[in-house]
Structures are given as C-alpha cells and as structure tokens.
Amino acid sequence: MNYFKIQSICGTARAGILKTAHGEIRSPFFMPVATKGSVKLLSNEEVRSAGTQCIISNAFILSLKPGVETISRLGGLHKFMGWNRPVFTDSGGFQVLSENFCLKLTDKEVLFRNPFDGKKLLFSPEKSIEIQNELGSDVAMCLDDVPHAGAEPSRLKESAARTALWAKRCIQAHKNKKQLLFGICQGGIDQKIRQKSAREICEMGFDGIAIGGLAIGEPLKKTMEATKAALDCIPREKPRYLMGVGSAKELVEAVALGADLFDSAFPTRTARHGLAFSSEKNLNMESSKFANDGSPLDKNCTCFVCNNHSRAYVHHLVRTKEENGQKYLSYHNLFFIQSLMEKIRTDIKEGSFKKEKYF
Fold first, then answer.
1. Among the options 190, 207, 263, 347, which is catalytic?
2. Element holding 262 (H helix, E strand)
3. N or C terminus of the chain: which is more exposed, having fewer CB within 10 Å?
C-alpha cells in the first residue's frame, strides 16, 4: 500500500499526503515534541488550535514512566493522551545514547541508567519496537546510534554500520500492521558516509526514511549539505523526515531541498527562555525595550496572543516570571511555525514556492 502521495512539486519542494491509522497529514509538516505525552505548557486543545496535525512522543521515556502496561491498559497512547490525531514515537535513541544515560554501547544493545531512579537497564532494537508496537503510535522509529556533533569519521562509520544492523533487527521485530515503520540514516556531516547510510537504509523497504544526527550543534550550512546528500539517495516516493529541525530558516531551507516532515522542541524551548518568533526578527522579550511597546509580538500573526496582548504585556509577564509569559510565547511560537508550514504547502501547490521570499 502506498502510504505517501506527492500532490505537487515546485522545484525540488514537495507537497503531499501521508496516510496513517489516525488520519491523513498534509506535508510538508512540523511536529511539536511531546516527550512525556504532552507539549510543554500547552493543552492538547491549544496544540490543535495552533494548526498542529501530528505530534511526536518518546517511547523510551514513556516506557519508564508511566510504563507501557499502564498506557496499554488505558487504551493505548492516543487515548491515554486524549489526542485523536496522528502520533509518531521516537525510539529514544538520542536519549539512550546521551552521555547522561549511556553506560555501555555494543552492537547487541545499550546499557543505560534510568533517569528516574538511577537503575541500570538494557535496551535493544527489539525492545524499542516492542514498546512502540504496544503503545500503538501511527509511526514508529527505528533505534539508531546517534554520534555527537563533530565526531571523527571512524565514529561516524561505526554509528552508520550499527544503525543499519539495528534497522534490520527493527524490521524483524515489528509486528503492528497498523503502524508505519521509518528507518533512520546516520553519518554526521560527512557526505559520503551519509549517502552510504541512506542507501543501505532505503534498500530495507521502510515506509519512510529519516535523516538523523543533524541539527545538534553543527553549522546550518553543513546541516543542509548533509541533508541534501542524504535526500539525493532517498527514493522520490518515500516520505523524507529531517529530524530535530524547528527554526523557520532551517525549515524553509530543508523544504526547498525536498524534505517532507520535521520535529523539534525548538519553538517551545526557546519560548521558555523568553524568545518570540517574528517575521522580521526574533524578539528577546526579556529586553527592557519592550516595556512600553503596544504592538503585537508579530504584526502578521493572527494567534490569540497577538490578537489580544501587546509586547509590553508579554514582556511584563516574562520579567516577573509569571508562568503565563512562557505559555503565551510557547503558543505563539508554535502557531508561527505551523502558519509558516501552511503557507509553504500553499505556495508549493500554487507553484510559487521560493525560499528567498520568506526572509
């Protein structure tokens, strides 16, 4: 069955439909991160009203708390969260392999420290897929070996080889026929390693292909070069997922290269640090220059924050550490990104998409 259909192409940018068990998603699209089953500071109603079609949760974290059995007993991940739209689940590879968690890494499995109670636990590709199958997400992600930014070529090759090995095991372990399974390519910013990894993962027949291990500290130019290298190797008919990208400039650049879907905590994380997205220049709402500014956060934005509140008011909330300051900025930033994605989809369909027009 063809789960992904391209409807329009403008240059190398694509607009299409990804079909899932919980509905169709119009691409290109952006997923806010709901690591523990919730987008920080926002209700599901607010996340939906911001234009969100799909969210991504972390299967590894959810398996630790509240646990797969609890979520399954309560009807699966969608019912547990009260979210009736599509959900992706990340394998947790990024968390498992972080220096804070990872104690030992082998081709067989990962020995990690539980971040909640400090106990040692083993985590394998099979276990990751078993958890995601049981949670019932619409799209499951393979467990991958994520190298740090700036890793040596030897480590990048090791990571790509292990990711391919684990991908094969993930396919064998995947039993939920209602759930799509996406593979992930690695390779850092080394274009040759990245392309070799992308080809290997594509040959395995996944429902979609993700580009992982980028947007973790390397320069934007290098990110996009590595992204293009991978995209050149991914079949046209497959949905292409660039992981970890959430700034307006990165999203536009990646769509222009032919990427279809994205996720990041960036819009909400930066909001919690007082940053407001704007079509002119992002705003640090901590700054005293906004103390008497009666204009909205962004003159072109129609979110409820911009329709009802001034920069001066949001600045006041942020400076006095009133929680609603972070909440309002989180909503605005998410709305801003989802509105951008809607405009991108429209421009592609109308044949007018050009990345230069957005900046």
1. 263
2. strand 261-264
3. N
pLDDT per residue as tens digits for the range 275-327 = 999 998 999 999 999 999 999 999 999 999 999 999 999 999 999 999 999 99
Measured CA to CA, the distance from residue 141 to residue 74 in angstroms comes to: 23
pLDDT of residue 1: 63
**How far apart are alpha carbons 115 and 328 in whole angstroms?**
30
pTM of the predicted structure, to 2 decimals: 0.97
Q: Which two tokens stand for residue 142?
A: 């393979």
- For residues 100, 106, 109 and 115, what is the CA-based torsion angle, rounded to 10 degrees? -10
Mean pLDDT, the chain, whole residue set = 96
Q: What is the pLDDT of residue 97?
A: 74
Alpha-carbon gap, residue 34 to 36, rounded angstroms: 6
Three-state SS for 13?
Answer: strand
315: which 2 tokens? 């600045």
| Other CB atoms within 10 A of residue 341 CB | 23
Q: What are phi and psi of 253, to 5 degrees?
A: -60, -45
* Helices 323-350, 311-319: inter-axial angle, 10-degree rounding: 130
3-state DSSP call for residue 190? coil
Of 90, 144, 207, 347, catalytic: 90
Residues above pLDDT 70, as percent of the chain: 100
Question: In the annotation, is 90 catalytic?
Answer: yes
Q: Which token pair is 302?
A: 């129609």
Compute, in degrees rounded to 10, the torsion defined by CA atoms 37, 38, 39, 43.
150
> Which tokens go with 244?
């970890």
Q: How far is CA 258 from CA 77, 142, 181, 208, 253, in A?
A: 31, 22, 20, 14, 9
DSSP-based three-state secondary structure for 106:
coil
Q: Report DSSP state, residue 115.
A: T
> Cβ(330)–Cβ(268) under 8 Å?
yes
Reply yes or no on whether 293 is catalytic: no
Higher pLDDT pick, 95 / 236: 236
- Between CA 342 and CA 75 the distance in angstroms is 32
Distance in angstroms (rounded) separating the CA atoms of residues 239 and 184: 12
